[in-house]
Amino acid sequence: MAWYAYCIGEKQAFPELARHRKPIPLESVLGVSGNQVFLYPASDLAIVVSEHNPAEGLNQKSGVDHARVIADCFQHSTVLPFRFGTIFNDDESLRKSIRSNQRQFLSNIDKVRGKTEMHLKIFVDDCCTQNGRRLPAEGVGREYLSNLRESATRQRERQTRARAVSFQMHRMFLPLDEEVTCRLTESGKMVLDIAHLIERKYVERYQNKFASTSAMMRECHLQLSGPWPPYHFVHRLTRGAHSPAQPVAAEPGATVVPAAAAVISEPVAILV
Known about the structure:
- The protein is an alpha+beta fold.
- Helices cover 33% and strands 29% of the residues.
- It has two domains: 139 residues, no CATH class; 114 residues, Alpha-Beta Plaits (2-Layer Sandwich), CATH 3.30.70.
């Protein structure tokens, strides 16, 4: 029997596992393809899985279901998410992977226990909108070199603006940790995606701070989502310990099913 994997939690967070050594249903929780979700006990850990038919493909709804199950488990336990599409071919491959990585899993759970991720998206007008000129098709000539210099100058100005906004957000929200990315949209907006790691007990305070910050920064448009499991920061803990192209449980029998059609609007399981 193949198992579709969602996340790893703490066994003690699920009292119903105390008297069981075999997988038991997680009441009222359905996962990918509408399959019953199970708690799979493994020493001090609980692996959240559901039965999976390898012939069934994964799609947009599968990604949403994957994220929903992790969010449900996050209400009860610190979790380490699996990459979307991680499948174990049988019980033995699942057990072997957990045994070989158990020490790291327990260490990572300790590092993110009691913490959550808040996600900020900030839309900023481009500080150096182009005047519509295009680079000449031929890469020669004085005009071409001049435009190259102008393009490099605009890029530095954008980076300076993005760093200034990011620093301002850090100073206002004072997260425990953060990850920031920036991109330029076709409409001429710079978009900063900022993941903040905070203590779960301070979520309401963070939300109140967001409300006051949005009212103050009228030159920007801010969006907030969360609290989420600490997806970005679990990824950082495991970066370098596993190949980026493989799931956290990169053992024989564990595979990642391609799912190009799945596009998730919020952070999803990315533990690699």
